[in-house]
Amino acid sequence: MTNELTPKFNPTEVEAGRYEKWLEADVFKPSGNPDAEPYSIVIPPPNVTGKLHLGHAWDTTLQDIIIRQKRMQGFDTLWLPGMDHAGIATQAKVAARLAEDGILPQDLGREKFLDKVWEWKDEYATTIKEQWGKMGISVDYSRERFTLDEGLSQAVRKVFVQLYNKGWIYRGEKLINWDPKAMTALSDIEVIHKEIDGAFYHITYQIEGSDEFVEIATTRPETFLGDTAVIVNEKDERYKHLVGKNVILPIINRVIPILTDDHADMEKGTGVVKITPAHDPNDFEVAMRHDLPMINMMNNDGTINENGGKYEGLDRFEARKQIVADLKELGQLVDIKPVRHEVGHSERTGVVVEPRLSTQWFVKMDELAKNAIANQTTEDAVEFYPPRFNDTFMQWMENVHDWVISRQLWWGHQIPAWYNEAGEMYVGEEAPEGEGWTQDADVLDTWFSSALWPFSTMGWPDENSADFKRYFPTSTLVTGYDIIFFWVSRMIFQSLEFTGKSPFHNVLIHGLIRDEEGRKMSKSLGNGIDPMDVIEKYGADALRWFLSNGSAPGQDVRFSYDKMDAAWNFINKIWNISRYILMNAEDVSADSVSSALTKVANKTAGNVTDRWILTRLNDTVERVTEQMDKFEFGVAGHILYNFIWDEFANWYLELTKEVMFGEDEAEKDITRAVLLHVLDQVLRLLHPIMPFFTEEIFEKLPNTSGSIVVAEYPKVRPEFNDDKASEGVAMLIELITAVRNIRAEVNTPLSKAVPMLIKSEHADFFNAVSPYISRFTNPSELTIAKDLAVPEQAMSAVITGAELYLPLAGLINIEEEIARLEKELAKWQKELDLVNKKLGNERFVANAKAEVVQKEKDKLADYQEKFDTVKARIAELKEN
């Protein structure tokens, strides 16, 4: 059979070759329909330093869910893929690989080293694309971009030159964060502050021309080699007699002045502060106020330079040890007090960052930040999901410092500035004419080019580019909250500056993937999870289901193999449902399905369960679509799971067996059509989240054609709504469940027939569905009436619209039955209290939708009826 499914879901078999077929069919490209509304996403570019991690898998999964759904809904969708060059990280990785063969980058020179990096890029870009394929992401590879592409490089040069000409990019000497391992400058947000064990070293400096000393405390004693002053507070009576005098730096014997400055806190430490302007941001500010010299005492690699005297050439931490030992020998080391303190570390290499005076290129941020802040009060404001991250963005923009954009690397966009021997500098998009010009050796921060990603990938600076005109601004960005500062904010202020528009309408923020204990995944803890390993075991669909259902927007999620097992089990459940339906629909045609559904819609055919499941399907489509539009994928997944597992599989499929095992062929045809239609719609609803196996089943359905990738997304079909059928089957399910519960309580298996009485105003309905009642409850005798005598010794249950009695003489204990009913009475009282509280809330009643308020009122009536009936039954039992 062409529509046969294997007995057990095997993700490896289902997913093999599927992605390649999609690419060959070009189903991921924009539709090109000029009448369709455009919807675009540019992928947050993973860097080319290695494999995708779970964070990237989360990004790509959520974006793929969005773009697949929008594609099915008829939008003209573009999902543009790409990668960034990750300057520091990639150069470090390549240098490390060369070091294994005893080769240094300097041995090769810039050009040959860059050849090696391009080889690395090609290797790892191929790996990443293979992993994207395993994830199933539906990108348009014909538009793939890389941050060092010529088009993007042109955009980078244009932006640099324009900002320079406006005076918003400048070159100057300032204190910056220095990475001694990568030997490059870092921006503030590339520094991670970690708590480590350190110490306060208390050192004495001698007053010149006297035997008096002052005591200072520092966590970095080696920096005294760069001291150019000590300061005290002018109000500090202890040191007024010393102001204007000098101290002698120990060991190196350099003389520096004693000055007054408010930075010296009389209440902190000894009140005397050493000033090392070239290696401390606060000291730099003091030096600027007092016009102090600034002595850099460190080489690029973190070793002490020629200003360090006898310590020249030592690593900074080795120099610290020797300086402490020498100070101790001189008697000028007073004390060492252990301290736990925060120290900046390089986000890329992990080494301790060194604050260091350096000549670098900077972006002047005040005007750019001002524009970004003002934009958030306009109609063009970027919408953050969840909204609290707008505050995070605004706080950072309001407190942003000038951005150091030069990096002392070879891999990256080389700064478009040239110098000649006459000391002239030229900044331009192309090299200056004439001889004797040398380009600046530094490259730009990777985030400088990534900040242009939403529009540079669309063809900008050519504003007449078809893609730029059609798909910019982009629709939605999905990313983790950890790069709001690195990337999101920079894209916003650069886009506003150069296009006059926000780069995207929405930003969906997700959290971090943590291990089962809630710890952040890291190499040091050894708790990282490779998504490719997960896919190999469970399949991409199961991983995508877990990632989309793991948490609400902005929240962290804990990875769990138990949850992966549950995801696989869910897919296998749907697989088995599909096998059952397909085995019972071998000879069904698309036309027969359409004809049968028309009859059901016209109420000329179909039983109450058929109309019930179609009503429930409508409700599911409406609610899932609403939640997906709000990026609440976890809520949407929960709704889908409940409908598929509980209503469709556990109830409707079981109820259809009454028809499928019967003799009425016409009724069977209707039920087959409904089964196929619901399965078809379920697969379409699931497809954005779990694309592989849904395509596998979809193509085997007799009522479908083409790829599910471009199939129409489900819509509510009002003609299928049947509130009466919905309410009726809800009562039927409640009745069957109540009987099963009562049987379990008195240990009476379903195989043993027992008498059953149903007292209900809906007796006609219950009589009509009595074949279902008999099939699922096995009554020895079934009595259904609007009014009947209630047996004295009977287990009972109150359900919506009916009272159920099972006369189980000899099995029932009256006292135990009263106790059980009193618990049930308490349950209904609790439900009444909750609904009354909600309806008693004036704000809820005034602000909620009318249908929501009415739903609560309907609940109140239902609960009250059940409460009263149970209470009356308790009274009857007590009287007897």
CATH superfamily of the largest domain: HUPs
Number of structurally distinct domains: 5
Q: How would the global form be characterised?
A: elongated
Portion in beta strands: 15-25%
CATH topology of the largest domain: Rossmann fold
Give the fraction of residues assigned to helices: 40-55%
Keywords, separated by commas or semicolons:
880 residues; Rossmann fold; Isoleucyl-tRNA Synthetase, domain 2; Isoleucyl-tRNA Synthetase, Domain 1; 7-stranded mixed beta sheet; 29 strands; 45% helix; elongated; Valine--tRNA ligase
Structural features, described:
With 880 residues, the chain is of the alpha/beta class. Helix content is 45%, strand content 17%. The strands form nine sheets. Strands 7, 8, 9, 10, 11, 12 and 13 form a seven-stranded mixed β-sheet that branches. α3 (54-72) links the parallel β1 and β2. α17 packs across α18 (561-583), α18 (561-583) runs antiparallel to α22 and α21 runs antiparallel to α22. The protein starts with 10 loop residues before the first helix and ends with a helix. The model has no long low-confidence stretch (mean pLDDT 91).
Brief overview:
It contains 29 helices and 29 strands. With 880 residues, the chain is of the alpha/beta class.
Topology:
Layout (H helix, E strand, L loop, with lengths): L10 H5 L2 H7 L13 E5 L11 H19 L3 E5 L1 E2 L3 H13 L5 H4 L1 H26 L9 E2 L3 H16 L3 E11 L4 E3 L4 E17 L5 E6 L10 E4 L13 E3 L6 E6 L12 E3 L5 H10 L25 H15 L2 E14 L7 E10 L2 H10 L7 E3 L2 H11 L4 E2 L1 E2 L9 E3 L5 E3 L10 E2 L3 E2 L1 H5 L2 H4 L9 H6 L2 E7 L3 H16 L4 E7 L2 E2 L16 H8 L1 H10 L7 E2 L2 H23 L6 H12 L6 H22 L3 H28 L4 H22 L4 H8 L24 H23 L8 E6 L3 H6 L1 H8 L1 E7 L9 E5 L2 E5 L7 H26 L2 H6 L2 H30 L1
Parallel strand pairs: 1-2, 3-4, 9-11, 15-23, 22-23, 24-25, 26-27
Antiparallel strand pairs: 5-6, 5-14, 7-8, 7-10, 7-13, 9-12, 10-11, 14-16, 17-21, 18-19, 18-20, 26-29, 28-29
Helix pairs in contact: 10-15, 16-17, 17-18, 18-21, 18-22, 19-22, 20-21, 20-22, 20-24, 21-22, 22-23, 24-26, 27-29
